[in-house]
Specification:
The complex is a heterodimer of chains A (267) and B (261). In chain A, 76% of the residues lie in helices and 0% in strands. Chain B has one domain. Classes of the chains: A mainly alpha (267), B mainly alpha (261).
Chain lengths: 267, 261
Amino acid sequence: MKRYIDFYITSIKLAIMEQWQYPIANYFYMIGMVAEPVIYMVVWSAVATQQGGTIGGYTPAAFAAYYIVWTLVRSMNVVFTPYGWEWRIRQGQLSMSLMRPIHPLHNDVAFFAGWKVVTIILWIPLALALSFFFKPDLHPTFLQGVVFFFAIWFAYLIRTMTLSILGMVTFWTTRVSALFELYFAAELILSGRLVPLSLMPDWVQRAAWFFPFRWAFGFPIETLTGNMSVNDLFLGLGMQIAWIVFGALVVSIVWKFAIRQFSAVGG
Amino acid sequence: MHGLRLAFSHLRIGVMNEFQYRANLYIQLLQTFIALGTGLVGLNLVFSQTTDLGGWNKAELLAVMGVFTMTGGLIRAAIQPNMERLMEEIREGTLDYALTKPADAQLFVSVREFRLWQNTDVVVGLIVLGVALSQLGWLLDVWAVLGFLSALFMGAVMVYSFWLIVTSTAFWFVRVNEIANLFEGLYAAGRWPVDIYPNWLRYGLTFLVPVAFAVTVPASALTGRLTLQTWLGALALTVFLFVVARVVWSIGLKNYSGASA
């Protein structure tokens, strides 16, 4: 146990130091990312204004709150991509990680967790600027704040698991971008990324319950911006934990079979 | 003349290169249709709540989406790959090889790559545009078509200049590969006409990142919104951005010392 803790602390520190050297690159990345929710926010605010100030219970200020929190949750959702897995396997980069006496996934989780710390720090001025321009309506309670803190880190772990599983498909075949694209399209619609799920047709909302997407995206946002009951808040956290455990289980099973397929190309 | 020939032979090489990987066409097609599908979902969600957005109705916005898809395809086929390669070469120091060629360096680095299969976006965008125009009951109007084509061309030149300016910052900042992400994010704003954005953002999308001129203005030409004033403004901005890009590139090039190579 101790060696895992040591490993995580060291890797996270390294990742923070490494990423802190590239504030410009990180900012470019974040501004590109922020454009997406700003577009949604503007479009939906325009629609709400045209419909007399509110649609589906959302005022323009509520949309602003939703999409500003969105930017942080989106940052937390950035993990090692399936395309990265493809590259790692094709280039034989994985060989090196296999030499280490620790599961390679720990390396990903720790590195990106460190990067997240930098991202969150860089996010704060961005969020302030967005709040200045769009005047969000956001009054979370203390409990909501606490639940939100856990929810975004759980979201990070859920997405790490799902994308790792997806990435591991590349052990069997290297033509996978089609599969990835389908996955991302489903995620866009079922997660609450495009629009708050409550504005989606009923059947989409019901379907969203059974996929991991909303637990990694819409739920964390709503913990802070919505008015969920205490019960629902904890139910949501429970669902997140269930997905993390289930994801980790699938990852370890798939990994067992996948690693037998691996033949290093080089590296 | 020499420049044109140079561009053309690179185009030919690019096409031949792409024909080696024909399976990529199918993947590209799928990507195009997924992008189109999610775009349509968004459009339908918006118009399930309202009948008009910033003075544009659904069919007109479909036309905007067609132009958006088309222009995006053009950018990803001809502009972005060249700029990404340039960025990489500045960082690696391998730009030396390009600079020693007996041709204008800016021209040369701008024509080396061409992604043929990205043009599926251009074809699909045209189809979407056609569907939208028929929904609008559009009749062929020579002036509208001329306005559209010229606006599209100016938009492409502006986007190219923007990319070159930002890419040239690699001479100073080295690690700028997130720019592609930055541009894609901002370009996505073009899916909707810029009229709906708040003023500060609209100016940004018009003059800083010329998304408005690449998408909204050509679409305006087809939906009878383009005024002579806007057209002349576009022309002036095109020339201005192109000159600025040339200047920034030249200054940047003086800063280049060739990392290793």
